[in-house]
Task: inverse folding
């Protein structure tokens, strides 16, 4: 169940050019969270700058420690990067609906673009403990933005060719899907990438789950601020009906929300 | 340890009795059950529902929210499940929580408001109605009634005829003379007023050279609007006799006190619920603490004690 936690930072360390991992101890959350779920963090308890909470996927859970992996984007994440161990933060979670792991599938392919790597650590760990075969297809802009991962990587791509194959991660996907049996795809990354992954999977009739981003206020389904258009034309809230959706549920022709 | 003196936090809004003066603002506490685990409807003196319309409304195209300096813009567009689904699916779950429920409604025409008010009047679990005549995010209805004293009065009068319980009208700050609207609505039979709803606003994405909100414009809420809210409350307090519910940017008990002292009998908490779901509880304990420090035994003693 979602809960409110005032936590002390255990560590906040840089892992690439712009990315950091932040870890803190929340035994209750560590036990109950599922891969794909997120936490909603108030970055400035006691002040109104920045005002709203910021959503971050749970990157990993080790024992009773929860980790998030974040990129410095604007004022909020800039503040977060300056936080040091022993500082306190105010965290709500776990929130949302995570990945739905289908135990009957033979091969679980994780596709991450850029910071879309964030929920994959936890998902990989869960698949490993369930003894389900899984691999990661990982695309980044360049080697300086590559974030180390524990998951078995099948291919890497980079926009500038500084690591792995030059090009988009989605260009590696069709071949990979041809070579495996009874696969399922879990994807997280920028909207255009998710759109391409969804199309490729839909064409091959391969089940695909995507983790979406959207501006959020409440994070619990109360304000209807975070909606995206679904394939039947209705609006669905990302924070509580997602952030992970079956890719067929999303109308991919809309403009990206964030 | 010395036992803390108990403070009487009860307030009354024209016959509607509340255990405390902190109310959840419409559109920020959903249908009352979304925050389970973080906040409960029973934490509040009353919970106001998301605006309900006769038919379901999908709402505006996204993006619908955007953070701004000490505030946020929203253009939700009164997305709601519609009266029937509210009554059948949402209300029973809220009733279980045993909180005082205030239904907030809007319509495109006076007839729609009246029809909804009649339906709400029949629901025994709902002792009060808040008329939203101040939503800046829909083209028809809503704010069209809230910016002109005679339309506001005509609507209030029509609803008053069919609605027998506590009738609250929620006013917009997007007007040149809030006192005139407040007086017109009081005369037309409102039991209480809520003020304020959000202020018109917008934000621009300089990379895309486009408005951030899908609806182009939205409503501003949060700490940024508190001075505007207090000003409007001050004006209204000196223009009408009916009880006033103050809101706009209340984040903590000090903010709430400013509204009570200026003339509010109760306050509503909106954006603060997103930031701090235990805002209501924190504010209530802060209010009780302030009363104790100042030898005030009843919270109602604070209303309107502003020295000018
Ligand atoms: C479910 C979910 C999970 C996420 N997980 C991660 C993660 O694991 N790692 C990570 O680095 N980022 C993640 N993000 C994106 C992250 O929330 C934003 O990068 C962050 O809020 C930016 O805040 P800022 O103050 O630095 O940026 P600013 O641009 O200054 O933020 C201004 C406002 O826009 C919102 N905003 C800006 N960009 C985004 C965005 N992409 N998504 C949502 N809101 C945004 C902010 O929350 C804030 O309200 C996730 C987003 C969602 C919705
Ligand atoms: C996301 C959001 C949705 C809202 N929806 C409604 C609504 O449906 N009906 C209504 O009367 N007011 C609505 N409001 C306005 C609030 O009830 C309140 O009047 C306003 O936000 C000012 O208070 P605050 O600064 O405490 O948030 C909404 C506000 C926000 C931020
Ligand atoms: S952020 Fe409020 S409904 Fe999703």
Result:
């Amino acid at each position: 169940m979602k809960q409110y936690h005032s936590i002390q930072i255990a560590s906040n360390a840089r892992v690439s050019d712009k990315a950091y991992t932040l870890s803190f101890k929340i035994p209750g959350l560590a036990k109950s969270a599922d891969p794909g779920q997120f936490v909603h963090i108030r970055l400035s308890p006691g002040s109104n700058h920045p005002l709203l909470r910021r959503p971050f996927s749970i990157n990993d859970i080790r024992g009773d420690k929860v980790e998030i992996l974040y990129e410095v984007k604007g004022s909020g994440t800039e503040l977060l990067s300056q936080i040091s161990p022993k500082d306190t933060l105010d965290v709500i979670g776990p929130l949302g609906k995570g990945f739905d792991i289908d135990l009957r599938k033979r091969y679980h392919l994780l596709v991450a673009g850029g910071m879309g790597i964030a929920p994959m650590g936890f998902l990989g760990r869960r698949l490993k403990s369930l003894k389900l075969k899984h691999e990661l297809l990982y695309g980044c802009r360049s080697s300086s933005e590559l974030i180390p991962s524990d998951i078995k990587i099948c291919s890497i791509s980079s926009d500038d060719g500084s690591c792995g194959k030059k090009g988009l991660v989605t260009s590696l996907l069709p071949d990979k899907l041809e070579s495996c049996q009874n696969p399922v795809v879990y994807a997280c990354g920028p909207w255009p990438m998710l759109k391409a992954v969804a199309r490729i999977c839909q064409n091959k009739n391969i089940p695909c789950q995507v983790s979406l981003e959207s501006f959020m206020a409440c994070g619990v389904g109360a304000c209807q601020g975070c909606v995206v258009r679904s394939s039947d034309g209705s609006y669905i809230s990302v924070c509580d009906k997602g952030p992970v959706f079956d890719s067929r549920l999303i109308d991919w022709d809309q403009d990206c929300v964030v | 340890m010395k036992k803390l003196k108990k403070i009487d936090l009860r307030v009354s809004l024209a016959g509607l009795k509340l255990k405390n003066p902190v109310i959840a603002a419409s559109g920020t506490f959903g249908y009352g059950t979304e925050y389970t685990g973080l906040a409960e409807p029973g934490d509040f003196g009353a919970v106001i529902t998301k605006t309900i319309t006769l038919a379901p409304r999908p709402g505006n195209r996204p993006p619908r929210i955007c953070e701004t300096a000490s505030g946020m813009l929203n253009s939700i567009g009164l997305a709601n499940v519609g009266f029937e689904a509210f009554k059948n699916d949402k209300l029973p779950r809220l009733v279980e929580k045993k909180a005082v429920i205030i239904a907030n409604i809007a319509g495109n025409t006076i007839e729609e408001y009246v029809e909804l008010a009649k339906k709400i009047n029949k629901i025994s679990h709902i002792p009060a109605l808040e008329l939203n005549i101040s939503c800046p995010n829909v083209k028809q209805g809503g704010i069209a009634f809230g910016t002109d004293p005679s339309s506001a009065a005509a609507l209030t009068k029509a609803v008053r005829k069919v609605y027998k319980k506590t009738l609250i009208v929620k006013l917009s700050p997007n007007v040149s003379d809030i006192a005139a609207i407040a007086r017109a609505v009081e005369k037309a039979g409102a039991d209480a007023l809520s003020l304020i709803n959000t202020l018109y606003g917008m934000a621009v994405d300089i990379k895309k050279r486009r408005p951030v909100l899908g609806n182009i414009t939205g409503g501003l809420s949060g700490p940024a609007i508190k001075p505007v809210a207090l000003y409007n409350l001050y004006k209204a307090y000196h223009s009408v006799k009916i009880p006033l519910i103050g809101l706009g940017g209340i984040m903590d008990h000090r903010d709430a006190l400013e509204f009570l002292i200026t003339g509010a009998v109760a306050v509503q908490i909106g954006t603060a619920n997103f930031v701090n779901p235990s805002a209501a509880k924190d504010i209530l304990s802060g209010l009780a603490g302030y009363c104790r420090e100042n030898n005030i035994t009843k919270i109602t003693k604070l209303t309107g004690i502003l020295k000018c």
